Amino acid sequence: MTKKKNGMPFEVYPTPGKGKDGKNILYARPVGGRRMRITLDQIDDYCAKNSLLNCGQLKLVMTAFKQWASEMMAEGYRIDTPIGSFAPKLKMKGEFTDPDEVGHDDVELDGVDYDPGKIWTEAIGHWMHDGFRKVERTEASGLLADKEYLEEALAESLKDGYTTARRFAYQAKLTLYSARKQLNEWTEGECPKLMKSRMGQQDIYTET
């Protein structure tokens, strides 16, 4: 296979499902890790250099939008914007079959639903003149042996106060299986680094 130098970089990972040959079916995902992240400071700096915005203005707009949008979502509204729509997600705290039995305290916030629509597919596609290029991923065994790297990836994924196996897997560039195994190891021993609890249908991990 000829190596490409241009195009969106992607890696292939195995899924639990098996193909006709008995091997794990693969899926593709963009190359992850902090080296592929763009921060708000970088976006703000770019806009200040390439538009009529002054440095810091974009950050002020984002802060104001977050405050107002969160207030509106708390009232039950869906927020439609040029970059997609945002709406609150709810879930029941238990299993109910009778609507009359559901009270005020039986519902909780389950995050925010983001619907990008077609805008990002069309916008990204406009710039993808060179298609995709495959990047050989680092073997999980090598990443798992690098304890300092894992600690940094964990700290990054805990920025919201908790992490999940999927979030840590993305941050550490591990398979979901390897990420879950590593997180569970951190919950064991006399002085565990993490505490595991259940939220909905997934496990969440918080610092002890």
Description:
The chain has 208 residues and is an alpha+beta fold. It has 2 domains: 1-37 and 78-137, no CATH class; 138-208, Winged helix-like DNA-binding domain superfamily/Winged helix DNA-binding domain (Arc Repressor Mutant, subunit A), CATH 1.10.10. 35% of the residues lie in helices and 26% in strands. The protein has 7 helices and 8 strands, in the order ββααβββαβααααββ. The chain has helices at 40-50, 57-74, 119-127, 140-145, 147-157, 165-172, 176-185, and strands at 8-18, 24-30, 79-81, 84-92, 107-115, 132-134, 194-199, 202-207. α5 crosses α6 and α6 packs across α7 (176-185). The longest helix has 18 residues, at 57-74. The protein is globular and about 65 Å long. The protein starts with 7 loop residues before the first strand and ends with a strand. The relative contact order is 0.11. The mean pLDDT is 86.
